[in-house]
Amino acid sequence: MAEAATLALPTFKGRAGWEFTDLGDFSLEAWEPAPANGTSFDAAHLLEPPDGAIELVQVDGAFDDGTAVEDGPVVLPLSVARERHPELVEPHLGTIVSDDDAFTAVNSSAWEGGAFVWVPKGIRVEAPILLTAVTAAAGTILNRRVLIVLEEGAQAEVWEQYVSGGPDATVLNTVVELKVGQNANLRYVCGQELNERSWIFGAQRAEVARDGALDWVALGFGSARGRMRMETLLDGPGADAKVTGAYAPHGRQHVDFTTTQEHGAPNTTSDLAFRGILADRSSAVWRGMIKVDPGAQQTDAFQVCRNLLLSKKAHADAIPGLEILANDVRCTHAAAVAQIDREQLFYLRSRGLDKPSAQRLVIEGFMAELIERFEVGATRDALRAAIEKRLVTLLD
After folding, report:
1. Predicted local confidence at residue 101, as pLDDT
2. Cα of 265 vs its chain's centroid, Å
3. Which of 209, 338, 370, 391 shows a CA-CA span of 20 to 30 A to 112?
């Protein structure tokens, strides 16, 4: 890790994609590795798992295997899976996310524990798989790596949550690699609710094979600052990706999401929708790119990011982009940043609602489109509950 930590960090003004997230007061060398014996903690679920969920919990560098399994699907700490099932892990580990900056390089050289999910050909996992990472020890960095592989025709739903185990400042540096096989179907829900003294950095990338489907959800509620990079490669005809994101900072929090929808094969589809709610002096940036590779004809791609500001001092940037190298495609995007509508508030208050209740109703309507992207069931219920809980914090 020492060698990787000496790599230059991306500079605030010198590297595309980092213009909005200042790392001037951050140093990788200032943080000790998360302890291997774990730390006592008190952390609530961001995503409430349904009955029967398979759970795997990492606290700093230690593990509670919970209901980890190896019979049929494999759900294990990545370090354990690498020892017991190298034939499943090695063909994919490190092949999806590249070590192209200091954070991913440090992760590759120093990841601890992590998580591995493998679903064999044709198997459907009925209950969600819940992966939890807790950062608790003050002044430490947890380099977490997750590898999820679905073989041909497999189906699974994996929820991952990042939470703090106390009030102390920590760093979570995470790499997630998703491999969706031919005609496989993966729903991956990733949410973070770290405390507001901590940092988060994430590099997450998915590769979706022919006729595969990825349903990806991101929630960004916690941390002081950080950046999440989410990339999807549609690597075979008929591949599809739906990406849904929500963030809701307050105080002086800053969130940064960079997304890429890369169409690497013909007849592929992607649909991305992000929504942000910003209070107080918080800030957010979403930068999205639809990339259509040569030969990826009949691509159908869409992206939208809308932001609702609850304060005149909150600030959001929404920057969509297109890079199209094929001539028979349909690619569209939209972005918006607006203050909460005073006329809507006035109307609701004239009907007897107080200001917090009126604000809450407007915000719930703003977020409803995201919730409605999911069928009735455990995922929809968990997302609604997480967003409603966050609104209580924003409007308190």
Report:
1. 87
2. 24
3. 209
